[in-house]
């Protein structure tokens, strides 16, 4: 099964942008995300169309957030990357007139809609700022653990 990692990738890039505190070029983001700058520009263009990021050309230019991270939810970002399908399963559609197929599709359709609604609700409850704070907390703990390990070796 092919997995769609656009949301995860763009969140990765946005956290790098927040951490940089200054405009970040597509090349810098591509290096951080282990991808091609063209891919970064394509994805970021979608975010720009939704008013989430801004870009400046020329010396000192690059990508920046267009809104406060506290005002951007993960649901906003999910929608900006095209709201990729979250459930890989789908309806059978070989015989739409079949009553069995209709019953199965209705039952699955309800479940698919419930899963998507829950997913969007949870994404809507998390801001980009909260995600950045979680990363900073993890980074601080990681640095502390490394320091403890270094002191234990001495």
TrEMBL record:
Keywords: Coiled coil
Residues passing through the membrane, by range: none
InterPro entries: Tscrpt_reg_Rrf2, WH-like_DNA-bd_sf, WH_DNA-bd_sf
Coiled-coil intervals, chain numbering: 125-152
Any Pfam family hit: Rrf2
Protein name: Rrf2 family transcriptional regulator
Protein species of origin: Bradyrhizobium brasilense
